[in-house]
Amino acid sequence: MKDLFGRAILDYLTNNQPEDLITETSISEEDEMSVAYLFRCYDEMPKIEQKALQLAKGKVLDVGCGAGSHSLTLQNDRNLDVTSIDISKNAIQACTLRGLKNARVHDIMTLENEKFDTILLLMNGTGIFGTLKETPIFLQKLKSLLNPNGQILIDSSDIIYMFDEDEDGGKWIPSENEYYGETIFTITYKGEKEAPLNWLFLDYNTLQNAAFANGLQCELVLEGEHYDYLAKLSI
């Protein structure tokens, strides 16, 4: 992994000639993403993210923290104990430079011997599951990191709207995927392309079913304006 996403974050923070990220998925065209968006303050965040930060309590784990904007809000404005993890070394370096007290390079699947009251997975938090088949493994891992009265706050989108309708009004979905929310995600930065990764969008009902099957309660907290939602999972 070239860590282009993290490099873009660090370039922006250190004013090292940052450029826009070019993102592309298996079901959408190339799109430009301004790195500045990753540095948004609370007032600039979508309502779903604001709601998740309002609900956060106790000892917090921010999974896939990126530039650390959610963690900084919780640490500085809410005075919460936040652990911020990301697999990107560059992103974590940026988080530390921005003043996060406990930011570390870590894969959620290898985190052991720690418990949290709130686990945050935002900006399509289900993305890291990769595929529907892998979802139970991630849910079991997240569950193992929760304190008894803990909560997992996670967002995603139902991307069924992106598929064409057939004559009967049904959706035409390619057959190569087990589930229509499974996509392949690629980013390009400064002319370099990152290795593609599996990225999962989960509709709420599918998330709820997966949660129940893995011993978790699931509650719909908030729906956004564009098929997106925030859910709360608990033991």
Could you list some keywords that capture this structure?
single chain, alpha/beta, 30% strand, seven-stranded mixed sheet, methyltransferase activity, 6 helices, Rossmann fold, Class I SAM-dependent methyltransferase, Methyltranfer_dom
The Cα radius of gyration reads: 18 Å
- Main pleated-sheet profile: 7 strands, mixed
Q: How many separate domains?
A: 1
Low-confidence stretches: none
Structural class comes to alpha/beta
Which fold name fills CATH's third level, the topology?
Rossmann fold
> How much of the sequence is in beta strands?
25-35%
- By DSSP (H or I, 4+ residues per run), the number of helices equals 6
- CATH architecture label: 3-Layer(aba) Sandwich
How would you describe this structure to a colleague?
By secondary structure, this protein is α/β, with parallel strands linked by helices. It has a single domain (45-183, 199-234), classed as Vaccinia Virus protein VP39 (Rossmann fold, 3-Layer(aba) Sandwich), CATH 3.40.50.150. It has six helices and twelve strands. It has helices spanning 4-13, 47-55, 69-77, 89-97, 135-144, 204-213, and strands at residues 21-25, 28-33, 59-63, 81-86, 103-105, 116-121, 146-157, 182-189, 192-193, 197-200, 217-223, 228-234. The strands form two sheets. A seven-stranded mixed beta sheet has the order 5-4-3-6-7-12-11, sandwiched between helices. Strands 1, 2, 8, 9 and 10 form a five-stranded antiparallel beta sheet that branches. Helix 5 (135-144) links the parallel strand 6 and strand 7 (146-157). Helix 1 (4-13) runs parallel beside helix 4. The chain is globular, with a radius of gyration of 18 Å. The mean pLDDT is 95. This is Class I SAM-dependent methyltransferase. Residues 58-189 form the Methyltransferase domain. GO terms for molecular function: methyltransferase activity.
